[in-house]
Amino acid sequence: MSADAERQLARLRARFHQKAQQLPKLGFVIRGTIIERFSRCGSLGCGCHDDPPRLHGPYWQWTAKVNGKTVTRNLSDHQVERYREWMDNALRVDQLVHELHELSAQADEVLRTLEREAAAPKKKNRPNPSRRSGRAGSPHPTASGTSASDARRP
Ligand SMILES: [Zn+2]
Asked: Where do the domains of the chain lie?
């Protein structure tokens, strides 16, 4: 493996672990939406039936799809705070997992380039597909740093 590719992979691996280490610090997660609701009551003399109405509320309502079903819950002020915290955690988890996938995709790109080069060494003549088919070859035991001059050899 070239020193450059090794450096790239080491950097990606370090970033991956740095990101992954943030996951255990997060708390419980929940998905959904919180909406503010105002309502009218059944008592006709109440201000909520005035014109303009002075509606009751706000009430907090959490809605989410759970196993394909829409679930709605009324939340107290305290619960709203907790739900918001958990929803923030969920967003953070999603973001981190997304970043882990991105870093992995970059590492895969580096490795696939190396694997492609190992399968078909750069030569003027066309790579022969019948030669050395199957699994990628083991890394060459050449000393790092000298491979560039070796490659220039006619
Ligand atoms: Zn009312």
From this structure: 3-116
For residue 52, the CA-to-ligand 1 centroid distance in Å is 13
Distance (angstroms) between ligand 1 centre and the Cα of 45 equals: 8
Query: What is the distance in A from the centroid of ligand 1 to the CA of 39?
Result: 8
- Separation of 44 CA from ligand 1 center, angstroms? 7
Cα of 111 from ligand 1 centre, angstroms: 66
CA dist list (Å): 60 to 29, 39, 69, 154: 18, 11, 20, 75
Q: Cα–Cα distances in Å, from 113 out to 35, 47, 133, 136?
A: 49, 71, 17, 12
CA of 35 to the centre of ligand 1 (A): 20
For 92-108, the pLDDT digits (tens) are: 999 999 999 999 999 99
pLDDT, tens digit (0-9, with 9 covering 90-100), for 4-30: 989 999 999 999 999 999 999 999 999
Which segments of the chain have a pLDDT < 50?
137-138, 142-153
The separation between CA 151 and the C-alpha centre of its own chain, rounded to angstroms, equals 39
Please name every residue paired with 108 in a beta bridge, in sequence order, or none if there are none. Answer: none
